[in-house]
Structures are given as C-alpha cells and as structure tokens.
Amino acid sequence: MGTKIEYVDSSHMYATNYIRNSKAIAVLWAIFSICYAIISVVAFVTPEWVGDSDSDAGGRLGLWQICQKDDLNDSCSGKLEELLEMQSIAFQVATVFCGLAVGTAALAICCLLLMVFMKSTTVFHICGWMQMLSALCMVIACVSFPFGWNSDEFRKICGPESNRFEVGLCSMRWAYPLAIIACIDGFILATLSFILATRHVRLQPEPQYQSSMYKGEINNAYVTDAVSIAGSRKSLNLQPVLLVAPPHHMDTLSSRAASRYGHALRPDYHQFQL
C-alpha cells in the first residue's frame, strides 16, 4: 500500500515545538505565581516570624501582631487599623511593604485576564514588572523587620537582651524564612515572565512545493534513478531528446566506404524530440 508524502519544513517543526513548550512554561509560571501570592499572604498575616514559646512569658511576634500566653490559650493583640500606633517605625515599614508585596502579587494574577483583550507579550511584561516590584517590597520588609528588635514591645517577648539583629531569648520561626523564600520566588517569576514576553517565534508562510512531480500516494519502493532524473529534468524545463542510430546495414556501408575512400563516414543520427 502506498505511503502519503508530506513536505514539512524544519523551521516550522522548530516553531511548533517551541510554541508547545512555551505554553507549558506559561502554565507553570501562572501556577507558581498563584503559589507566590499565597506565600506572601501567609507571611503577612501570621504572627510566626519570631517567638519563644518555651519560657513562661514567651510568645510570638509577627509584622503587626503580638501573641502572648495566658492560662488557657494565647491572646493576640494588634490590628492593621492600629498600624500608626506601633512604637517601632521598623515594624510599620515592614508591615506596609509586605502589604504592598501581597497587593502587587495578587494584581499580577488578575492581569492574566488581560490576555483576552491584549497581546500575551504585553501582559507578560506587565506581570513581570509587578512581580519585580512585589519581590523588592518583600525584600524591604524582611530587611527592615530586624531593626525593630530593640523596641519595648519586642523585649516584652524576647527579654531585655534583645537588640537589633539580636533576638535575645527568642528564635526565628517559620514565617520569616518563608518570607525570604518569597523574595527569591518573586525575582525568579519576574525573570521568567520577561523571558516569555521577549522570546517568540515569527511563523513563516507554508512552503509551496510546486516543482514536485508526485502528488497523492506513491510506493517508494518503485522510485528509481530514472524517475528521479526525469523529475529533475522536468523541474529544469529541459526538453528530452531521443537519439536514434542508423540501422545495422548502414554501418556495413560505412565500413565499405571507409575502405574505398580511406576515411570513415560519420553516421547521421536522427533526432526526435518527445
């Protein structure tokens, strides 16, 4: 049974594979962007940045929340509405910039809906700059937070030995490293967004194979050299010429004439064009 011949350009195969891979990477980028927003929200609302739950007066501290032990459970104090009433300016700065990081991360996810109305390259550029801004805000929050460890509200939890970049009786809890991981994650996602926005393939028009002499289905086992030569001759628009030699008796007369006149007569070939 014959096989169907299809002509495929290598550049189109590369473009097709690249588009498939870029779509898969874009989906992963969107998923990790959602995860980054969730990590930022958790780091913002939890009071598990620094704490000492082993001592009698121990507790936990977050950006804008302080939790201390009671007889039965922990009592947490601090509200976002009371942000300006905090004693430490460093905690205020950390809270504001961490909130900005959460807001820009959530806004970058909402900008994905703009792909319905705008080009994907423009949307990736917008999301990339937003994620870069979010990561920078998270870095500022993580750096400014240790400057408030010499405040009175911090020393109530971690003891009088605490100072800037010295936690005293407390220790680092899981929310602070999570915020640092969010900073790295934000920069990686922003870089990937810029790569997706700048690297694209411009598709070329489909190739036209007009010079091919075969269309449809053929059996490759019967394609010989004569067929390929005829195909090349047809593609070059060459007119085939058939040369017909004279009959055998004319060769005999030519040999007799040569013996008589001392030179050979050139046999005339008849040309036939097909």
Q: Assign the structural class, choosing from mainly alpha, mainly beta, alpha/beta, alpha+beta, or little secondary structure.
A: alpha+beta
Helix content: 40-55%
- How large is the count of helical segments? 7
Mean pLDDT rating:
75
- Give the CA-CA distance, first to last residue: 32 Å
Unreliable segments (pLDDT under 50, ≥5 consecutive)?
4-8, 209-218, 226-230, 232-236, 269-274
> Quick one: biggest sheet?
5 strands, antiparallel
Radius of gyration: 41 Å
Q: List the strand order in the largest sheet.
A: 5-4-3-2-6
- The dominant shape is elongated
Describe what is shown at a glance.
The chain is of the alpha+beta class and 274 residues long. It is built from 7 helices and 9 strands; from the N terminus they run βαββββαααβαβαβαβ.
